[in-house]
Amino acid sequence: MTDIKQGDPGGGVVAAANSASKSTANGTDQRSVKRVVLASFVGTTLEYYDFFVYGTAASIVFPVLFFPAGDATAGLLLALATYAVGYVVRPLGAALFGHFGDRIGRKNVLIATLLIMGLASALVGVLPVYGSVGLLAPIMLVILRFVQGLGIGGEWGGAALMVTESDGKGRRGLLGSLVQVAAPVGLLLATGIFSLTSALTTDEQFMAWGWRIPFLISFALVAIGFYIRMKVGESPVFAAAEEKEKEQREAEVRAPLIHVFKHYKKELALAVGARIGSDIAFYIFAMFILVYGPEHLGMDPSLALAASTLSAVAQSIAIPCFGHLCDKLGRRPVMIGGALAGIAYSFLFFAMIDSGSTFLVLIAPGIGLAVVAAMYAPIASFIPELFATNVRFTGAAVGFQMAGVFGGGFAPLIAMELIVLTQTGFSVAGYLSATLVLMVVCVALAKETSKISMTNAGK
């Protein structure tokens, strides 16, 4: 298998996907690569939709219906704690599904994660609330959140690998960025459906039954994702390695997680450090406004929700642009540039939100997520390129999801506590900036991997 050479990305996402899909360098034809890209994007979008539906409900619904308390802030913190459970369990899901993804292949694991995530989310929509069953309600909620975290823990690694291991034109950054677009598109769907449901119901109707609709929609979405994923074949790089190096693989990766921690400690640490900052930045710029605006500034919740929704649109556009750029310039310059811009913008972001101007509030999260796109778009190629094929699923998934624990998992609680202690958003900006400095250091220490083939990556 020959090394991948850099091509001219040319005319945007569609042209790149079409051009890359014409290659047979990895044993794939035009249609199969298109199916892989579509299946990875759609499936991961649906899973992020499920995750963000929960996050949105944790901010505006669960504190009232599942964690009633005399102190409204205490109820909110309890709801956000259940949100964090989904992040904390992600590395376990990454290790579990990564093991099977490296041992038996990527495709079947992706189908399993889709079903687990989607059905857990849909079942939230039929849970009884605290007023009906007491403490059993939050217990069941936490259990389903745990299952959600397991599913998404294995989802990202498989989706990123299916795309990057199918590319034969040196456009892994661009095609991999389409997996990253799934996060803002999932956020867009979640906040959009919540906004629509809220607009079509009264406050009493929304709290009584309207909030369940976004969760119940997951039943239909998971069926769509399942159908699409059943149509794709196995990753060609994995299939080739399995065919040609079966005896060696059996000897080396009987326990992929142990192999990663033994032989890829540096790469794993760099993957975690390179992703934490972008994860926190995503939460602060896109989701924190749903809490900070109404709770701290007295902002209309509909304005905060609209701003979050618009930010998802901005990032959906920006991610493929930076994916294109990281194929031309390399992963490191784009990610470091995004992190430095994020440090500068974090303070301006809170100044814009605190201004009280409707216009500034609406555009501030969008600008923030456009900046995050520079850090986030290359991740789907940068992290998998750190690991060899026989442990790539485990290494990439565990690295990505461990960062999520320290990033998105604890970010809501840390940000809320900083606001309570300091009464200013600039303390949150300082917290975000510190994590982005860590990102700059880790990316600078990593090798540039944009011009190597996936068969030689991690060696």
UniProtKB/TrEMBL annotation:
Signal peptide: none annotated. Pfam families: Sugar_tr. Residues 36-451 form the Major facilitator superfamily (MFS) profile domain. It is found in: Cell membrane. Keywords: Cell membrane, Membrane, Transmembrane, Transmembrane helix, Transport. The keyword Chaperone does not apply. It is a multi-pass membrane protein. This is MFS transporter. It comes from Saccharopolyspora oryzae.
